[in-house]
Protein 1
Amino acid sequence: MKQTMHAFFILMSLLLLTACGDKPAPATGATQAPAGQPAAAAAPAAAAKTFEWKMVTTWPPNFPIFQEGVERFAKDVDTMSGGRLQIKVYAGGELVPPLQTFDAVSQGTVEMGHGAAYYWAGKIPAAQFFTAVPFGLNAQGINAWLLSGGGLELWRELYKDHNLIPFPLGNTGVQMGGWFNKEIKGLDDLKGLKMRIPGLGGKVLAKAGGTPVLLAGGEIYTALERGTIDATEWVGPYHDERLGLQRAAKFYYYPGWHEPGTELELLVNTKAWESLPPDLQAIVNSASQATSLWMLAEFEARNIDALNKLRSEDKVIVREFPPAMLRELKRLATEVYEEEAAKDPAFKKVYDAFKAFQAKNDAWNNISEQAYRKALNL
Ligand code: CA
C-alpha cells in the first residue's frame, strides 16, 4: 500500500511538471537526457564511461592496516561500481616519492592519494589539525568534528586552492608515547633528548628542551639502535613490534599525548572528482567511510595482542608517563598553538574552531566515555 501511494505521488508529480511545461532540474549535466529523447533511453556519457585512476600513498608496500586499508578501499570501489571506477594503488616510492603525494594529486599527475595531513605542514601549517593535535581530540572526537561539527568544511576550504578535495580515510586511535632508553620521571628527562617525533608534538618537545628529529619509518630502528636518537615514537604496539623497536630500546611509554587519534586522509584531484558522475562520487564517499571504520577497528583489535607479546616475550618495560609531566606538556602545547595562530590567520581560524569543538566534546566525554571508564574500573 505504501509503495503504491509512493508510486502514485511520483506519477502525479511528473504529470504536474509536464502540465506546467517545466522539466525537473537535473542534478548535474551527466544525468540530463539529451533534448527530445526519453530519459530512459539516454545513456549519459559519464555513466557509461569506465574510469581508470591512479592513487599514490605515503606508506611502504604492504604496510599493515594503512596500505592494506587503501587497497581494500580501491577494491570496494571497483566492486561497488561494477568496475566503472578502477583505482590502481601505488605504495610510497613506486610512482612518486612518499612525500610528493600531495603535489602529485594537486597537479593531476594522479587522481588520488592517501597519507596524513601533517606531512604538508610546511605548505599548510593548519593542515596539522586534520591529523593529530597533542592533547586534542581522540578518534571518536575527530570523527564527530569532521562529519558533524564543521571540521570537514574547514579542511576542504584549506585545500581548495591546491585543487584537492580531502576525505577522512582511517584513524589509528590513540598512539603510544614512544620508546626510550632511560626511565622518564619528569620534564627534566626530556631536556636534551633527541627524539623522532613529527608535527606539533615535535614543537612541544622542543619547548620542553628536547630536540625533535624527523625520520622516515625505515630509518627509525637503525637510528635508535646506534644511538643517533635517544627515543622515538612510531604508531602503536602492532606496528612498533614489526619495526623491531623492542630490540633497540627498553622502556615503552603511554599514552601518546602527541597523537591522540591520528586521522588519515584521502586526497582527490578536484578536476578528476568533478568528472565523476554522482553515483561514483557517492561510492567513493561511502567506501572511504567504510574503510575508515575498518582501519580503526583493526587498530583497536590488534594492538593489545602485540602489547602483551612485547611484555611477556620481549620483556619490554611498559610505563605510564608521569602525570605532572603530562600537565606541563599540555601547558606547552597551548603555548605552541597560540604562537602558531599569531603567525598564520588560516591556522588561527582552524585552531579556534577546533578548540571550541573540543571544549564541548571534552565536557560531554567527562560524563559519557570517561565516567563509564571510571565506573568500569571501580
Ligand atoms: Ca606517530
Note: The longest strand covers residues 164-171.
Protein 2
Amino acid sequence: MISVDARRLLDRIRDLGAIGRDGEGRLVRLAASDADRQGRDRFVGWLREAGLEVAIDRMGNIFGIWRTPGNAGQAPILIGSHIDTVIDAGIYDGCYGVLAGLEAIETLKASGFVLSRPLAVAAFTNEEGVRYSPDMMGSLVHAGGVAIDEALAAVGTDGSVLGQELASIGYAGDEQPGFLKPHTYLELHIEQGPVLEREGVPIGAVENLQGISWQRITIDGVANHAGTTPMSMRSDAGHAAARVVAFLHDRAKASNTPTVATVGTMRFEPNAINVIPSRAVFTIDLRDPFEHRLQAEEAALAAHLEELAAAEGVTISVERLARFEPVIFDSRIVELIEAAAISRGLVSKRMTSGAGHDAQMMARIAPAAMIFVPSAGGISHNPREYTEDTELVAGANILLDVVTRLAT
Ligand code: HGY
Ligand code: MN
Ligand code: MN
C-alpha cells in the first residue's frame, strides 16, 4: 500500500497558506484578486514541477492533468477543490483538498502503477463567493449550471467585474468551460464543523450536502434626526434590519431541525451616529439538508418581511444571490471511502456536509463524493482553523487509496 509524501504535502499547505496575507497579517485571497493570482501562480508552479499538463479554462479554473499513452482516451478521475479564501481565513479550507489531490497524483505517477484512467486535479475559481455571488461559481460553470458569459459579467462587492479581473491576473484561460468530462469526482476537505472531533473519528465519508439559499435584502426607510424624531414617527431601516436578524436567529434556534441562518454582512446609510438609517443592506444565508424545509424557511422569511414593511413603514426589496438544492453523493464512492478507511485501520463516519463545496456542482455531471477530516473545535472561516498533521496525512492517504481503486 503506497502512501503520500507527508512532508511535501504539509510544507505546501503551509507555503500556500503564507501567500495573500494583508497588512494585518490576515489571509485574504479573494477570487481573482492579486493575492489569488499569487496563490494560483504557486499552484501552477507545483503542477509544472510534477510534470502535469496544465489547462486553464475561460472561468480561470486550473487543471493539472496526468495522462499516459495507455489511458489518454479515457475520461479522467478528477480531484478538486479551491484555493480562493474568505476574509481572514484559515489555511486549510479548499487548499488542503487541492494540494492533497496533487500529492495523490504525484505519488501515483512515481509509483509505476499502470492506471486505466488519466488523473486530474482542479482548483476551481471563486468557490467562496465572498467577492462575487454565487459561491462554487467556477465548478457551477464547469457543470453547466450557469453560462460562462453570465458568470464573467458578475459584479463584485467592490464593483469589479469578474471577467475583467480574471484577465488582469492572467487567468482568463482558453479552454471552454466543461472541456474536461470527469469519470468520477472526489473532494477531500476539512469538515469545518465539530462532529468528527467530538466523536473522535478521523475520516468522514460524506454522503450528502445541504441546500443553500443566499439573498441580499435592502430596507429603505427615512433618514431623520436621532434627537428630534419621536419613536412613533420613525421609518428606521436599521431597526427593521435588526428585527429580521432576530427573527431568523430565533426561528432557526427554536426549530428542532438542522436549519441554520446567518446574517454575515450589513451596512447602513448614511451610517452616521445621529442619523436614523435611511437604508440597511444585508445578506441572508439559509441552509437545510431538506429542500422542502429550506423552501418553508424562505417562505416564512418572505412573509415576515411583508409584515415588517407595513409595521415599520419601510420598503423592502430582495435579491437572490445563490440557491442550490441539497445534493446526494454517489453511494458506491462513499463505500470505497469507508473501505479505504478500514484498510488503513481508521474509523469512518457517514455524514452530511454543512458547508457548500465544488463537489455539489460536479455531482451534476459525474458520480461524486467527499472525504472529511476533523476540524479542531469545529472552527473554520477563521484563522484559528486547524487540523492535526496526522489527520491531514490520513485523509490524503484515503484519497490516494480511493483514486487508486477507481483508476486500476
Ligand atoms: O459557503 C460555503 O459553504 C462555502 O464555504 N463556500
Ligand atoms: Mn471550502
Ligand atoms: Mn469556505
Note: DSSP finds twelve helices and 16 strands in the chain.
Protein 3
Amino acid sequence: MSGQKTVYLDNNATTMVAPEVVDVMMPFFIEKYGNPSSMHTFGGQVGEHIETARRQVAELLGASPEEILFTSCGTESDSTALLSALRAYPEKRHIVTSKVEHPAIKSLVENLEVFTGRRYRVSSLPVDRQGMIDLAEYQQMLTDDTAIVSVMWANNETGNIYPIEKMAAMAKARGILFHTDAVQAVGKVAINLAELDVDYLSMSGHKLHAPKGVGALYVRKGTPFVPFLAGGHQESGHRGGTENVASIVGFGKACAMAAERMEEENTRVKAMRDRLEEGLLASIPKSMLNGSKENRLPNTTNISFEFVEGEAILLHMNLYNICASSGSACTSGSLEPSHVLRAMGVPLTAAHGSVRFSFSTYNSEEDVDYVLEKMPAIIDTLRQLSPFWEK
Ligand code: PLP
C-alpha cells in the first residue's frame, strides 16, 4: 500500500480545486484584499472581478449576469429559492418534489413549518427501479395550490438525470414556479437556461473544481425573490454579507474551464467510468448497477455488491487509498441504506452494499486499472465473513 497515490473517485462529494483556479484566487488574499463595498479605489476595484465571475457563471448556464446571485453553497441556494417562492405566494400551501432529493431540499421540505410558520402539503414523486420518474404522475400532482416544484437536475448518488426541460415546461403551463437543484449537473451536462422554463437553479463551486464555501443561485428575471440573508446592500440588495471575493473569482474561472471541458467530460471521463463499471460488473458476481444506464451523468456509477456492507467495503478500499462513497450510512447505531436506493426499491441485501464511484477530469486510466485490480479481492474477503453469503 505504501507509496500508492490516492485514487480519488469521490468527485460527487467534492472535487480538487483546479490549479488554474487557485492561481486566479491568490491575488485576492494579499494584493487585492479590499472590501468591494468600500469607497476607495483599492476596495472598489475588487468589485469588477466579482462581475467578471458573474458573467462566467452566467455564460455556462446560458443566463444573463443579472440573473446570478452568489451564495455560500448549494444548500443556501436551495433554501433561498424555495423560501422565496413560498413567501411570494403565502396563500399556496402545496409543494411538489421527488423522493430522491439531496438532504438540502429533503430536510427543508420536511421542516417547512419551522422555517415559515405555515403548514404545507408536500407531494414527493416516486421513482422506478432505475430511479426515474413518471411524467404523467408528475402532471397529476400539479394543482392550483402548488407554490413551487423542486426537482433535482441530476442525482448525487446514482447520477440519474431528470427530464427538467419537460418538467419545467409543464409547471409553467400551470403557472407554477420551478426550481432545480443542479449542484451535480452544472459542468457535467450542457445547460441553456435561455431556452428553458426554469425559474430558479442552484449550483455549488466545490463540485466543479472551485473551492468549498461558494455557490450561486440563478433567478430568472421577473421571478419572485426574497433575500435569505438580511444585511447590507451586497449583491444588489439580494444577499447581505461581505462577498467571498477570492472564492467567487475562482468559481468564475472554474465555470469557464467547465465549459471548455464539457466535451472531455462526455468522452474521456465517461469512457473511464464505463470501463470501471463494466469491469466490476463482469469480474464480481452478484454485483448490479443502481440507476439508469442511459439517463445518467457521465462521471457517476453506483454499484451494489450483494451480501456485504458498503461501509466495510469503503474501509477496505481505504487501506488501498481508494476513495469512494457508500449508499449506506451509520445512523443511530443501525446501518440504514440511503433514501435514494430505498425509493428505487433496491433489495436490502444489495442496498446495504452499494458503492458510488464518481470521476473527474483529473482521473486517469491507471486509476481504473488499480480499482479493477483491487475490488474483486476486497469483495471476496468480505463475503467470506458474511453469514448471508453461500460459500
Ligand atoms: N444538492 C446536491 C444534489 C448535492 O449533491 C449537494 C452536495 O453534495 C448539495 C445540494 C449541497 O451543496 P453544498 O455542499 O454546496 O451545500
Note: The chain has a mean pLDDT of 95.
Protein 4
Amino acid sequence: MKSEGLLLVISGPAGAGKGTVVKELMKDENMRLSISATTRAPRGQEQNGVEYYFLSKEEFEKMIADNGFYEYAQYVGNYYGSPKKPVEQWLGEGRDVILEIEVQGCKSVKAQTPECISIFIKPPSLEILEKRLRGRGTESEEVIAKRMARAAEELPLADDYDYVVVNDDLDRCVGELRDIIAKLRDEK
Ligand code: 5GP
C-alpha cells in the first residue's frame, strides 16, 4: 500500500531566507511545493502561477466560501492561502509537500492534520533580518516597519514548532533540514 507523503509546514519571519531554503529542498524529486494564493500585489519579477496565484479580494473570498483552501490567514493586510486540491492530491500520491506559510496558517494545519511536521526558520538576529529585508529593495519603509513588527511577534512562537532551524549559513541550514526530512521518512 502506498503511504501518504510528509506534510511539512515551514514558517519564519519574512526575510529569514525561507524562500532560498525551500528552493534547495525542492531539488529532491519527491518534494512538492504548494503555490499559495494571495491578495497582495506582485513584487519585483513575481509572476502569477509561479510564486503565487494573485487574486482579488473577491476571488479569494469566493474560494474561501467554496472551501477551496487547506488553510488561509491574513498577514499585514492581505489574505494568503494554500489551495487544497494539489496538497491532498500530492500527499495521496506519496509525495512530500511543503507549505511555506505564516504562524496562524501553521496552527490551523496542525489542528486538522496533527501528523504534519512544523519547522520554524529563524534568522540569526533581528538586525540581520532587517538588513536582509532592506537589501531586497522591493518594499517601502512602511511595509518594512510592519514586517519587522510582525517578525518580533512571530519569533517567540518558534517554541510551538516541532523543529527550529537557524538560517545562519544556507548550506548548513539546508543540511540540517535534509537530515530532519531523511529521519522522518525513515520513521514512516
Ligand atoms: P510574502 O508577502 O513575503 O510573500 O509572504 C508573507 C507571509 O505570508 C510569509 O510569512 C509567508 O510564509 C506567508 N504565506 C505565504 N503563503 C501563505 C499561505 O498560503 N498561507 C499562510 N497562512 N501564509 C502564507
Note: Helices lie at 18-25, 57-65, 84-92, 103-112, 126-136, 141-154, 170-187.
